Amino acid sequence: MSSTSQDKHFAVSVAEHPALELIGMKIRTTMQTCQEDCPKMWHDTFAPWIHRLYPESNCPSWGASTAYDAATGSFDYWTLLKAPQGQPIPKELKNFTLPAGLYAQCVLTSVAEIHTAYHYLYSRWLPSQTTYVGLEDGVCFEYGPPDFCQTGRMNICIPVARR
């Protein structure tokens, strides 16, 4: 019997992440439109900045979700990278601190799994937890390592605390 994407199981680990100082840009999106808005922002708006700031190498990148409004289903979505050393930060990009903390994380094999993985973490993994509780006002993030474009592998992380 084959499983649907909603039935997919992800291996989840929990780890401390340090704070990171990043730069990037944000949009306000909703749970209904984020599957279109966020990729569009990456490809059309942010990718040129990555290539401009890091023209000769692949660099890690982050996507972060903040300021969730449960009443409207809206949130801020940031596309982020580390500021290159020795270069001024372009005025179009803003500073962002990814907070240190405890995060539940899973590894994805494709960006196409993001929505399914977040659904799994919030609707299946968290409710089954006796050790951890989700932090509703925390920052969720995706991390794409330098080889993301070649492998498609990435991590998603949601903030948690011990019960």
Automatic annotation (TrEMBL):
- Record's Gene3D superfamilies? Regulatory factor, effector binding domain
Tell me which residues make up the AraC effector-binding domain. Answer: 10-161
One Pfam match: GyrI-like
Give TM segment ranges: none
- The source's superkingdom equals Bacteria
Q: What is this protein called?
A: GyrI-like domain-containing protein
Fetch the InterPro entries from UniProt.
AraC_E-bd, GyrI-like, Reg_factor_effector_dom_sf
